[in-house]
Amino acid sequence: MKVILVGFGVIGKGVVKVIDKKKNHLKSKYGLDLKIVAICDRSGAAIDENGLDLKTALKVKEETGKISNYPEKGKNMSIVDVIKTVDADAIVEATPTNIETGEPAKTHMIEAFKNGKHVITANKGPLALYFNELTSYAEKYNKIFRYEASVGGAMPIINLAKETLAGNEITEIKGILNGTTNYILTKMEKEKLDFDTVLKEAQELGIAETNPHQDISGLDTAAKIVILANSIMNKNVSIKDVKLEGITRITPEALTMANKSGYTIKLIGEVSENKLEVGPKLIPIDDPMNVKGSLNVAMLNTDLAKEVVVVGRGAGDIETSSAILSDIISVYLRTKNE
Fold first, then answer.
1. Which of 20, 78, 81, 24 is nearest to 51 (CA)?
2. Domains and CATH numbers, the chain
3. Do 216 and 246 contact (CB within 8 A), yes or no?
4. What angle do CA 137, 143, 147 make, to 5 degrees?
5. Pure H helices in 65-99
6. Average pLDDT in the 28-36 region?
7. Is the separation of the CB atoms in 115 and 141 below 8 Å?
8. Element (H or E) spanning 93, and its range?
């Protein structure tokens, strides 16, 4: 199976590391001979239709910052031209998330479908804004569209709901879907520190971004809850439809008062028949939703299986790449006999 990797930042490098580590395992377990035939970044691309040497690709990126400097195989080509011209079965779209416009990832995905390629992505921006448009392109061109890594990192939610829980009616999904905010609230609660102090520490540790707006405002969680609403509960909503509140107003005193009553405060995303919202909620201390640190958790309420709870690491390059790899394997298994 030939794959084009679009985006060679943190997640893209994670994908390359995971595939390089697992290639022999994939071949022996699934018969999957997985080759990355092109890697793209803003500088251009490296292309080899027999498969790039992944250790060389990582070294070139690390040392020069540009994949187009890959010896003999570096090209000054746009990403769209690579998608159009390089022979591959699928693209992995791993460019940075843009929640305002969904670009350039939206264009990359559409061009992939138009040019006969399946799409696997961790990019929540276009999914939060144009989910139904993208799925309609996949259907029109009879291609597979997989996006488990866009919500909850390594934590299986979408595929769990659509495959393992197939046959169940899912009436509600709620969860902690942002590790940064969960880390901040956990630290504030445990050490009685104020929001600004903990945020600064989280930034120094690399848990929070230099510009943490999407996390602390709840926008990141809102994007993820929209993806769950559309993909699992068949809604037709966008991030603009979410009732939204972040965590900047939470104080150590509020957390202490909640604790005294047997509760904690968490940033919860929630979707049900009449609800689509993100905001701080009181959660019982002994509730399975009360996970600590940077962990994520999701609870799915169903008619047959009742409550199903999943806990996992919601971020990290290798963790997110594990979900991408799972989707690649799924595409391969669905198409290997075609």
1. 20
2. 2-154+317-335 (3.40.50.720), 162-313 (3.30.360.10)
3. yes
4. 80
5. 79-85
6. 97
7. no
8. strand 90-93
Distance CA 252, CA 256 (A): 6
Active site residue ranges: 224
CA distances from 329 to 31, 111, 125, 207, 217 (A): 10, 22, 23, 30, 35
Helix (H) or strand (E) holding 103: none
pLDDT at 88: 98
pLDDT at 305: 96
Q: Yes or no: say if 16 and 35 are a contact pair by the CB < 8 Å rule.
A: no
Residue with the two structure tokens 């559409």? 110
Contact status, residue 15 vs residue 5, Cβ threshold 8 Å: yes
| Nearest of 286, 285, 268, 284 to residue 228 by alpha carbon | 268
Three-state secondary structure call for residue 127:
helix
- By CB atoms closer than 10 A (0-12, 13-18, 19+), residue 30 is middle
User: What pTM was estimated for this model as a whole?
Assistant: 0.94
